[in-house]
Request: fold
Amino acid sequence: MEQAKHQNLYAILKEGFPADGSTVAIETTTRTYCWDELDHISSQLAYWLHSLGLPQGARVAVQVEKTPEALLLYLATLRAGLVYLPLNTAYSASEVDYFLGDAQPAVLVGASQHLHWLKPLAQAHQIEHVLTLEADGTGSLMEAAAELGTDFATVAVGWDDLAAILYTSGTTGRSKGAMLTHGNLSSNALTLKSYWGWQQDDVLLHMLPIFHIHGLFVACHGALIAGARMVWLPSFDAKQAIRYLPQCTVMMGVPTYYVRLLAQPEFNRDLCKNMRLFISGSAPLLADTFTAFEQRTGMTILERYGMSETVMNTSNPYDQTKTKRLAGTVGAALPGIEIRVVDDNDQTVEIGTPGHVQVRGPNVFRGYWKMPEKTQEEFTQDGWFRTGDIGVLGGESIPDTYLSIVGRSKDLIISGGYNVYPKEIELVIDELPGVRESAVIGVPHADFGEAVLAVIVPEEGAQLDLTAMLSTLKKQLANYKLPKKMDVISELPRNTMGKVQKNVLRDRYTNSFVS
Reply:
């Protein structure tokens, strides 16, 4: 990896492009883009950005629908030595207002339908350059770049220069901008190319959004650095996925994608005969889904663990000749990355004991944008990043190097002085007849400080007997872990990446034990 230092991430990705630039790089439902087009159009966009006379490191904020042109704008931003700031398309005007005020971008690209509120925000934050990019790939941005050159010389940057800022969800306070460098993203892309066996003849079924690390930095980087074709769908649709699966070899998705595929009667082993790898992330994959998928397709889903601040940290093995992929775990640390589980004093705990997950490696971000105190707080004195996750290394029938995520530290419940890990209870509840999934949270309680509350989603048509369920749980859990209350709802609240929003549940049930 030494030879990649001091290179722009785009230059590293381009090294994997096929020698024949006329071959297909991206296939959408309406057209194809060849590798030469990726290079030439990103060059034109980079020339346009360069023409603005912006200093290296200036931010380019983007809130647009998923299109190949949006990906090319990202690549152009890298080429021009600027910093890409992707914004979730679901963000409201007030949320975007915060991000623009915090990041102070020089350029804002959005959809024309939102200009009525984007322009006033841009004016308020002194953003001079406001352009549009539409869901069909047209817009004032593409018009501005259309006649520019196709030979832009990619700007030289250092390993530690910023490539992107990703804002975290902000469920425990205001959103933080994670600063990711060219080195962070390059090292992770090179590692995953090798570890997951990317080849030029791969075809990636891409259905994820591209304002997040999963869809942009893991999926797109993987295909680009391997010179592999992408089948590009605007979002997940089970019928469309089934249509394109036979021509693909790799698929990445959140657990919901796999649940919905399994719900299709026509989804079978034959449709997956050319697939070599199914990857799941961004939210925990239920063991039942893992098992049902293996029974239906003969293939095991590879679950991995990453976050906005670090991209990918661990992975279940690609090569299963020595160790197997295990349901409920996120595998071992990727090559060049270290994982440890510690107590409240940053001391390593015993194998099989829950603790705080910390990570160290070239993938770990530079810090939080304009938050030096928060950055210092999140790193240990010896350079480990505190992920905020609670995890366990090893366990019964689990290799000592395999990590299992128990939950977020903010989700830890302290009831009557005892630490309660929600994931442990959720796993037991999810095994009960008629339960599709569950979420366990802590809510205020006068006697216990916090009480355990379980929210349960039944399987379709199932009638749950909560009294009988609690009786069963008493045989499997210590008394302090037992839910003081259980509620049945039709669906758990999730964000766009499929993660259960426990903060929403806590708000909803916060007064459950208030007399």
Remarks:
- Residues 412-509 form a domain with the GMP Synthetase; Chain A, domain 3 fold (CATH 3.30.300.30).
- The longest strand covers residues 385-395.
